[in-house]
Amino acid sequence: MIARRLILAAGALACCATLAAAQQRGGGRMAVLPGANPSAIVSAELAFARMARERGQWAAFRETADEDAILFMPGPVNARAWLRNRPEPAQALSWAPRAVYVSCDGVYAVSTGPWTHPGGASGTFITLWRRQRNGSFKWVIDFGDDTPYPADGGDDLLIDGKVADCPARGPGGGGGMDRRDDPARLPVVAIPDPPPASGEGQSHDGSLRWRWSSGPAERHLIVTMRYQQEERTVIDRTVAITAP
């Protein structure tokens, strides 16, 4: 029932995203590409969680990880190497997104929300997604922890979806989007095993940016997006690393 109601919320979110895109196009200075759709990320995250329940937690992580994916356990690890032949836990985690932030070009997105374990544990997940050539999404960064997801006092079934402003073109910022080759077709750069202790990246159009670091005592992830004509920090999370 919860999953079904979240999917209905995702449908409403798609309508809102379409309206927002039309409003920005009407302004003449910015436009949102048709591929920038928060509901697609909600669907990808819910399908990821459903696969974990039905096929096994690590099987779902392996299936949906991109070639250069990084998983924090608690420090950064090469996800594909770490997940290879990983035995399944007796019970999988459950999770669902509460907020989604999408780059203007729709190629990258970040989703976040609470996770729970049948044994009673809970925490927060943050997933960075990348669109594939076939239009599906795979995750690039999974930054989960056991700190409770912050309560905002609102409806738990409502999903906050935001699409980043697109960079303006032409003299004085006018004109439409630069419709170059789809950034999803750019080659993926392999990561070392183990990966470096820090990294950063951004969408092809620069509308969504992220930076992470990990040290002996803590790890940190910050995500910013260009929204309503200013750079906004949408995620700023520091997690303490405790000895096992």
Oligomeric description of these chains: single chain
Major beta sheet, specifics? 8 strands, mixed
Bin the strand percentage: 25-35%
- Provide the CATH top-level class: Alpha Beta
Task: Give the helices and strands as they follow along the chain.
Answer: HHHEEHEEEEEEEEEE
Low-confidence stretches: 1-33, 172-180
Care to count the β-strands?
A: 12
In CATH terms, what is the architecture?
Roll
Radius of gyration: 18 Å
The chain-level mean pLDDT equals 83
With helices defined by DSSP (H or I, 4 residues minimum), what is the helix count?
4
Topology:
Blueprint: H1 2-27, H2 38-55, H3 57-64, E1 65-72, E2 76-78, H4 79-83, E3 94-95, E4 99-102, E5 108-116, E6 122-131, E7 137-142, E8 160-163, E9 198-202, E10 208-214, E11 218-227, E12 230-240
Parallel strand pairs: 1-7, 4-8
Antiparallel strand pairs: 1-2, 3-5, 4-5, 5-6, 6-7, 9-10, 10-11, 11-12
Helix pairs in contact: 1-2, 2-3
List keywords for this structure.
single chain, 244 residues, alpha+beta, Nuclear Transport Factor 2, Chain: A, eight-stranded mixed β-sheet, four-stranded antiparallel β-sheet, 12 strands, 23% helix, globular, disordered N terminus
